[in-house]
Amino acid sequence: MGRRSGGFKWQFAVLAIIGAAVYYFMNQETVPLTGRTQVRTLEPQQEMALGLQSYRQILADNRGNVVQSGSTVNTVNAMGVRLARVAEQYMVEETGEQTGYDWTFNVIKSEQANAFALPGGYTAVYTGLIPIAENEDGLAVIMGHEIGHALAHHGAERMAQQNMQQIVGAGVMMGAGGMDAGAQRTVIGLFGAGAQYGFALPFSRNHESEADYIGLILMARACYDPREAPQLWARMGANSAGAPPEFASTHPASETRIRQFEEWMPEALEVYARYCQ
Question: Which residue in 44, 64, 83, 129 is a FRET match for 32, CA 20 to 30 A apart?
């Protein structure tokens, strides 16, 4: 006679949720430029070390494709210095401290329409983005956005969020431990889907929107025309055929980003007028 399987033991899941909540409330920080409460455990120096390690690996993987000179390199470097200077001024005004970042800018030859800024200010632009950016203001939208990610410590926050998911996931697995194999797979699958679509993806889209806002204000302060932002995302949308629906994506839809930029535009234009007369 086979062993009779038990039901789901909710006490393990409840304890895990309590543990994740304690983790969250004990590790709260404030995003410097928006005031949003976030969870992160890494110290800035730890973030920078991880960012530098990843950056070196990316450049090594693209050895031979790192563009050394030319007009695009000159533009990216000049724009990076200008945006980074404004970012540091903005941070001092908001927090009283500079970032301590080692702002670095590179161009990588690739068809990818992509760019990134890792913790520590280690930034790269792929040449596939240049035709879509179309002009300096469009490129400033992209680079300001990536710098926004670095200033808001989004990388460290994602790591902390993953830790919280793992805590709750461990509780779910323990709770399902006495169930038969088929029931366990169902419970774990449902948890995975719920965590992905109800937690991880929405947080990722929020990070993108937050970086959009920070980048918009930075580019306006650096005297790039913020009115190019919705135009840039109209072009990005036209070049992203086959993108998944927004609920299944790490990024907001182009239409969402255009609408948000238009909502933020009065503030950005006020900043532009104040700093760029």
Answer: 129
Q: Would you tell me how many other CB atoms lie within 10 Å of the CB of residue 86?
A: 21
pLDDT digits (tens, 9 = 90+) for 191-225: 888 888 888 888 899 999 999 999 999 999 999 99
Would 12 be classed as within a structural domain? no
CA 131 to the chain's CA centroid: 23
Segments forming the whole domain that contains residue 59: 23-276
Residue 13 lies in a domain: no
The catalytically annotated residue of 97, 111, 134, 146 is 146
Annotated catalytic residue 94: no
Residue 5 lies in a domain: no
Closest among 133, 83, 130 to 104, alpha carbons compared: 83
Q: What is the pLDDT of residues 189-200, one digit of tens each?
A: 888 888 888 888
